Structures are given as structure tokens and as C-alpha cells.
Amino acid sequence: MELPGTDVYVLAGAEYLEQALVTDVDAFGKTDDFNRVFGNGVLSTEGEQWSRQRGILQPLFHPERVSGYADDMVAATQRRLATWEDGERLDIESEMQDLTIEILFATLFGRDLAPGEGDDLRDASDGLNKWFVPTSWLLPHWIPTPSRHKFSNSESRLRVEIRRLLAEYEYADKSGTVTLADQVGQSASDGQSGGSESETLLSKLSEAAEATGDEHLNPEEIEDQMLTMIFAGYETTASAIAFALYSLATEPDVRAAFHEELDTVLDGRPPTRDDVSRLDLTNRIVTETLRLYPPIHTIPRQTTREVDVGRYHLPPDEQVHLSVISVHRDEQYYDAPLEFRPDRWTDGFQEELDDHAFIPFGGGRRTCIGREFARLEATLALATIGQRFDLEWTGDETDIAIEPEMTTKTQNGLPMAVRER
């Protein structure tokens, strides 16, 4: 793809994505854009630094620990739904962003946010997307644009909020006062929300600040991990839940079967982690949404050396986009790829699918650390919402325009009327 002042190579085949993410992974490095946005966070670092950071954070996302977040996820969703009124028209895309940042704090941060309490944080985090607006992204980094100004302002605001959070929880208190880990443990013993087994992202970072050797994170790394987790921990899952609700609102047959499953499996009670495996259609709705509307529509990379991809020769230091959405919507892998069909994910379809033809969470060693967390959150939130509300699409057209920023978003939101069931 030839663009003004630069060339961008777009890889849009499962075999090409596998080459870039697995077989020739060292030839495709992270771009400078990741460092500009996430600093030394786990999304942007490479090599030993990335391995060390991933190892420190990984215990928070162990499957058993993730399943322990289920009740907090459902409770946060119920608090958000309590603000909805029957017949009210809402932008569901925005609502799901509010919801997922509230879930993020209730689980990884061990702190309940009242609906609306996280608005400033969410608004600042959302501005990070502006670095990837195409009209700005194509230009040299030193050229000021309105989008870049909004990005810089948002990044500054977000870092101020992060420093406030870190100070509030005294993650590196050297004065001998109560530490964050003590506060979290006390909250758990008092019956308050303390996250899974009293360990939260903040307590983990507190430990890393005081550790030595491979377990240590310096203050800059800690701040950048917070920025990364706040953005990645809510924006992508919000996209998945919102597009799932849009798909249900515009597919009445699927919606009816979805509500029937919830009524049968849950029988009027809130969903739990033990219900997830029995919500077969709900899980397939989440999977099909991740296919048709992958939260990360493209994975940017930069060649570190000369590399041949198929019959093409890529020079070093060239921009490469791994187009996840193109592969997910390729009729080579999916029948009627533009149609929302949860039933395609039956009879062992995924096991027979080409490797890397379905990679909503990336692939290879850099697969998203929070993938199990995100799937559980999306499934439980969708079930909790669908149990209580029926959503009616109120947009002018059923076709929606996608905004290609860092995450998959719409240009005009997702307006829906919420009807109590």
C-alpha cells in the first residue's frame, strides 16, 4: 500500500500472520508508535525486558485467578444496569466503555467505582487512540495535528491520574507507614472488594517496586504498566461487548435464542463462573463478534531485517500491518464472512480452521496476556445484560461505519433503546 511519504506493507493471509508472529517473529518488531503511546509497558517492550515484565504480571491472569474475578464482574455490571431506565436511548458503545473500566477497577484494582466515577479516567485513556488516527499517523511525528494535540493532552492527564492512584495506594512507601499490600489484605479481611485472593495489579506492582533482580520494576516501568493495563484492560473488551449487543439487536432470531438460553441456564439468577461453560450460544456469540469485529483490527509491526513473505521481498525498517480484520473476513476461511453467524462455531469448526485465521488476541509469544480475562468478562457481561434487557437498534441504518483507530470503534456510536424484559 503506497501512502504519501511512506510505504506500508499489509499482510492479509493466515500464513503471513503466522510467519510474522511465530516462524519469523524476530524479523517483525514493535513499531515506534507503541513506545510513544505505552512507553515501557508490556505492550511495547521487547526481548529480556518484555519477558521480565510478562513474568511479573502473568500470575494475575492465571486461569484459576481469572475465574475468581467472575463475581466482581457480574456485580459491576449490575451496578451499571441499575442506572438504565426502561425505554431509555443510550450509546451502547460509550456505556460499555464505562462498564469495562468499572470492571477493571473492581477486579485488577480491588476497588469499586460508582457509575460515573471513572469518567475522567476513561476520557483521558480514550484519547490515546488519537495517535493512530490515519490522517495523523501518516505524517512525520514532529508535525502537530489536532489529533496529536488531543493525544498529548490525554496522555498527560492519564499519567497524572496514574500517579495519583499510585500515591493513594502508597505502592512504594518508604516511610514505614501502611503499604498497599497491607491495605488490600485488610480490605479483604473486612469483607470489602479486594480482588481475587487479595492480590491486585497495584499490590503486584508494589511488590515489584521493592523486589530485586528479575522481579524488580523501576518507577517508570510501573507507571507505564498502569497506563497499558488501564487502556488495554477496558477499551478492547468494551468494543467486543458493544458489537455483540449491536449484532443481537440487528439479528432477531439469534437474539431470541440467546434470551432462551439465558432463561433456561440461569433461571432468573445472576450468572456465575460455573455457568460460563453451559452458556454455549453466549460463548459462540462472543467468538463470532471477535471474528467479525476484532477489537484490534490490525497489528502494526516494523521489519528488523530483510525478509521474504510469499513472493514479496520486504526491506528492513519498513512499516507492516498484520490485518486481522481482513483475515477474519476472508471467504477463503469463512463462508459468508460478512454475516453474523454464531452457529458457524459448531461441529469442530475452529479446530479445522487454518492456524492464525482467527487471532483476535494476537498470536505466538506475544498473545494478549489478558485474553482469558477478556473472554470471561465479555461472556458474563453479555449474559447479565441479556438477562435483564432487550436492546433495540435505533440507528438510521443497520450498516455501521468503522473508525480505524488503535481499537475497532464506530464513527457515530451505537444508539439503542433499552427495554426491560
TrEMBL record:
The lineage of its organism: Archaea, Methanobacteriati, Methanobacteriota, Stenosarchaea group, Halobacteria. Pfam families: p450. It comes from the Archaea. Transmembrane segments: none annotated. The keyword Membrane does not apply. PROSITE patterns: CYTOCHROME_P450 (PS00086). This is Cytochrome P450. GO terms for molecular function: heme binding; iron ion binding; monooxygenase activity; oxidoreductase activity, acting on paired donors, with incorporation or reduction of molecular oxygen. Belongs to the cytochrome P450 family. It comes from Halococcus thailandensis JCM 13552. Signal peptide: none annotated. Keywords: Heme, Iron, Metal-binding, Monooxygenase, Oxidoreductase. The keyword Iron applies.
